[in-house]
């Protein structure tokens, strides 16, 4: 059975075992608030401002990017965490004696929620599929299979933004060194891609949360926090990960619907009907009709619906908290709340009218083309350099000069999996616009400055 005193450790995850200068003398911020601040000022987080959420990055400013989505998820996560924290402090008074506040728990969830999409590549979830499909189906991608272990190849053919996010958060070059509690709360899927005995009934097995070369990092994290194993090379979720997941579920359900309505893909009446079902008796049609602006109508309904879903999710957390500690509960909180059926209706509508709308499909088609093209030219050049030097052309040499410095690897120290991980770091870390610009250049479609 996991325990909260250990789960709320404020010690920092650090791959470098040496003393570092920090600002712990600043008593105005908790360690978990420092997590939030470090993330906000990091380059990977900043890049989310030019990454697609659902719709192509628009000329209008009312559609969400990954950055605005992440900030909103973090805000909802803070509310969830603080409310759940009040419950935990009542149930476990020893936590208060240790100096833990509900604000600390809110800060953990807020920071973890802030990073929940930090590993997503350009062009949304289509970008994840594009990277996976390159290694599954493209001739230049499949060449690498013979040079990788089975578990390493599983990472290549099933790229996962959550695992990429874990890699970015523990990578020493990013300098984040966030707390163990925040890192574990971020990790909604505490298992690698290659897993024997995957349990489809457990939500934490739906995806994976770290790559093959970081299995040891998660083992270290689980030992510090006392997170129990749930089989070979997989673990139970940190209970606060359920709140991070709920914050994301709430935001993308409600706000994607709002964006879809704003863009005219969903009728206002249909949107009002769905959101009123969440509000129940709190919905007052006459008050809504008194609001003159369509945008303000949507904003009021969105705020009220999110507040209702927060209350329901906190109640579900309180009810299931003991089962989370024992590992007997492994579902999304939004699947067991009173509004679960309405959220399912919203999801079905969003798939039909929003996620399969022409602008979204066009963006996805472009994303597949761009990421496949980038992976093709760079991976081919790398493969020729290390495995087929007789085919290593002047074009390949020029292409490789565009790569970051970490690709200057000694032949003797060459590890193919590490090389590919660095390549995917480079490409998945791009913004949509930079990926498109570089694709045009390496394909000769445009020249610098044009």
TrEMBL record:
InterPro entries: dGTP_triP_hydro_central_sf, dGTP_triphosphohydrolase_C, dGTPase, dGTPase-like, HD/PDEase_dom, HD_domain, PHydrolase_assoc_dom. Residues 66-253 form the HD domain. The keyword Hydrolase applies. SUPFAM superfamilies: HD-domain/PDEase-like. Keywords: Hydrolase. This is dGTP triphosphohydrolase. It comes from Echinicola jeungdonensis. The gene is dgt.
């Amino acid at each position: 059975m996991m325990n909260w005193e250990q789960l709320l450790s404020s010690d920092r995850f650090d791959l470098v075992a040496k003393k570092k200068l920090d600002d712990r003398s600043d008593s105005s911020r908790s360690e978990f608030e420092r997590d939030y601040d470090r993330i906000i000022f990091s380059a990977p987080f900043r890049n989310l401002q030019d990454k697609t959420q659902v719709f192509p990055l628009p000329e209008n400013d009312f559609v969400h990017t990954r950055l605005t989505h992440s900030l909103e998820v973090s805000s909802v996560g803070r509310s969830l965490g603080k409310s759940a924290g009040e419950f935990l402090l009542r149930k476990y008074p020893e936590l208060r004696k240790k100096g833990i506040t509900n604000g600390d728990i809110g800060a953990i969830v807020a920071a973890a929620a802030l990073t929940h999409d930090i590993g997503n590549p350009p062009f949304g979830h289509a970008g994840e599929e594009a990277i996976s499909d390159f290694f599954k189906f493209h001739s230049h991608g499949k060449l690498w299979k013979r040079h990788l272990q089975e578990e390493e190849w599983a990472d290549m053919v099933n790229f996962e933004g959550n695992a990429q996010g874990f890699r970015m958060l523990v990578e020493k070059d990013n300098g984040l060194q966030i707390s163990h509690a925040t890192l574990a709360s971020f990790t909604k899927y505490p298992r690698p891609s290659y897993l024997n005995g995957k349990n489809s009934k457990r939500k934490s097995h739906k995806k994976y949360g770290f790559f093959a070369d970081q299995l040891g990092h998660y083992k270290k994290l689980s030992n510090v926090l006392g997170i129990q194993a749930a089989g070979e090379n997989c673990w139970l979720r940190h209970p606060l990960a359920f709140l991070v997941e709920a914050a994301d579920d709430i935001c993308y359900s409600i706000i994607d619907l709002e964006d879809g309505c704003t863009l005219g893909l969903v009728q206002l009446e249909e949107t009002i009907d769905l959101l009123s079902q969440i509000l129940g008796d709190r919905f007052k049609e006459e008050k809504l009709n008194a609001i003159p602006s369509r945008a303000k109508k949507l904003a009021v309904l969105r705020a009220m619906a999110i507040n209702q879903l927060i209350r329901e999710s906190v109640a579900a957390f309180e009810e299931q908290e003991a089962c989370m500690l024992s590992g007997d509960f492994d579902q999304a909180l939004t699947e067991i709340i009173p509004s679960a059926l309405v959220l399912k209706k919203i999801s079905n509508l969003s798939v039909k009218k929003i996620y399969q709308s022409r602008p979204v499909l066009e963006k996805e088609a472009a994303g597949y083309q761009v990421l496949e093209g980038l992976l093709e030219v760079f991976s081919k050049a790398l493969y020729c350099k290390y495995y087929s030097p007789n085919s290593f052309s002047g074009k390949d040499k020029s292409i490789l000069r565009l790569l970051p410095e970490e690709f200057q690897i000694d032949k003797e120290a060459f590890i193919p999996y590490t090389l590919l991980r660095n390549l995917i770091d480079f490409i998945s870390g791009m913004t949509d616009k930079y990926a498109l610009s570089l694709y045009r250049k390496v394909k000769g479609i445009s020249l610098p400055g044009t």
